[in-house]
Amino acid sequence: MEREHSAEGSPIFDSLDIDLFVKVLEHTVFGPFFVFFIPVFYIFQGAKFTDPVVVISSIYWVFISLFWLVKWCSRLYRNQGSLFFGPGRFDWGEQIVVITGGSSGVGELLANTLAVRNVNVVVLDINPIVTENYNITYYKCDVSKWEEVKAVSKKVIEEIGEPTVLINNAGVVQGKLILDLKPEDVQQTFSVNTLAHFWTLKAFLPSMLKRKSGHIVTVASVMGYSSAVQMSDYSASKAAAIMLHESLRQELDIRYKCPQIRTTLVTPGHILTPLFKTLSVPNTAFYKFFFPSVQPITVVKRIIAALDEQHSQQISVPFYTNFVPYQRHLPSFLHDFVGWIAHANYAMERFEKVSGRRPDEGASKDD
Predict the structure, then answer these.
(1) Where is the signal peptide (predicted)?
(2) Which among 339, 295, 299, 267 is positioned nearest to 13, based on CA atoms?
(3) pTM (predicted TM-score)
């Protein structure tokens, strides 16, 4: 059995999935504050400190606490933060956010959501954004072409101001077998999904370095870690975007001596947008639980939270996408078995590309 997107791009599926379970577990049995009260509860019930249940639960609490401590120290190191003093309050009213591919999908929702926060939003796209928000400014721009990005960036800086946040969100997908890809298909995929990131960085990063502040969000895909049938060019372009993100982080820290500029990598699974409305996946309870599709608002909330926290990070949604990078280290038979369970090599069989050249949110199909 398979499910497809409706005309609006939303499948019929249950809201109960593993992501909800993980979220609950993080705040209960995997949360140090919650676990701390387990041995305390037994002691108040009359148990001795040497009783196995108290000793085991105490050891478990120490283990959980050490895990979160290491995670927190890693976060502090990555952001060169202080143990007691975090970044100052993020003033949304003073931000100028540039979003590529912001006229549809996740980009459109992100632009309108930020506009509600009184943020000056600049949308770069080949199609105009339909919005009633007065603080969203649209510039027609094919971000795959350096000359256009260079010219438009000068207009943005002159008319709006120097951007404080850059969200490289534009993306296209061909959905063809390798031998069916035309040279212009491959060129378009890499130009929009990869080269555009270079052009926008060249255009807007210098002003961030001058101010020694800013945030760059790279919307890639879980398919950048593990590809599938009919996704060769897309996956290769997203893998390149991921490597660009990692190089950028190192250059900001080591060469430019500017860790204050934050970087966030977004590697989502299948997002429910029109770009992948003809993608087909199993309609079984097992699949919907372990490999759920993601609503655009989920990704938008995570991106906004990352900007608000002012910490460099990676956003991987839904939960299973956290494990995809490790799939390549499995023996070949296990690698193929995981791909079979995830329906990765069959989801694009009936894929139909959205007509016209339409940069979207860079979502990927399930893997």
Answers:
(1) none
(2) 295
(3) 0.85
Supply the pLDDT for residue 298: 93
Q: How far apart are CA 250 and CA 86, in angstroms?
A: 22
Give the separation between CA 316 and CA 160, rounded to whole angstroms.
32
Contacts of residue 365, defined as CB under 8 A and 6 or more positions apart, other chains included, come to 223, 228, 231, 269, 270, 276, 279, 281, 344, 347, 348
Q: Which residue type is seen at 247?
A: S
C-alpha distances in Å from residue 361, one per residue of 100, 106, 239, 352, 357: 9, 5, 16, 17, 13
Greatest mean pLDDT range, 42-46, 120-124, 363-367: 120-124
Q: SS3 for 121?
A: strand
Give how far Cα 339 sits from Cα of 111, 113, 165, Å: 34, 35, 36
Gap between the terminal Cα atoms of the chain = 18
Please give the helix or strand (H or E) that residue 258 lies within, else none.
none
Of the candidates 138, 139, 225, 234, the residue annotated as catalytic is 234
**Does the active-site annotation cover 139?**
no
At 341, list the tokens: 């369970």
Reply yes or no: is the peptide bond before residue 318 cis, omega within 30 of 0: yes
> Is the predicted pLDDT of residue 328 greater than 90, yes or no?
no
276: DSSP letter? G
Partner residues linked to 136 by β-bridges: 121
Mean pLDDT of the chain: 87
Mean pLDDT of 166-176: 94
Task: Please classify residue 135 by burial: count the beta carbons closer than 10 Å to its beta carbon, then call 0-12 exposed, 13-18 middle and 19+ buried.
Answer: middle
CA distance 156 to 150: 10
The answer to whether 189 touches 174, Cβ cutoff 8 Å, is yes
Is pLDDT above 70 for 364?
no
